[in-house]
Specification:
The chain has about 140 residues and is of the alpha+beta class. It has 6 helices and 4 strands; from the N terminus they run αβαααβββαα. Strands 2-1-3-4 form a 4-stranded mixed beta sheet.
Length: about 140
Amino acid sequence: DCAEGGLAVALAECCISGDRGAEIRLDLGSREFSYGDASRTGVGSRENTASFRWDSLLFAEGGARILVSVAPDRAEAWEAYLTEQLGEHWQKLGVVTKTGGSLRVSTASNPDLINATIEVMTERWLNAIERRLSL
């Protein structure tokens, strides 16, 4: 569910709750991301990629976006089902990686847009209120 904190927070929550890493590749060229107001975010057409803001994609809150993890041996069937049901209105973002790994989000222009270990993300999440109150 990307409604609270956007895509980046949803990815982090998935990694923390499953104690698994993820390798995510955000590529505007393979399929276009389409959410929200394309004129405001620059999303939705290849002509607008120069004005595109990654923070909008990663942290914009909104409904109608979900993350799904599928076992590797079922991925082909799942992707065929999505294509049958949704046409081109879905996107494969990446793969789940090893236990206790890292969340890595990359783009063509930034190979380390996000690179955080599950251990560090978990510690920050578990101690967020305590850390904030000690300021």
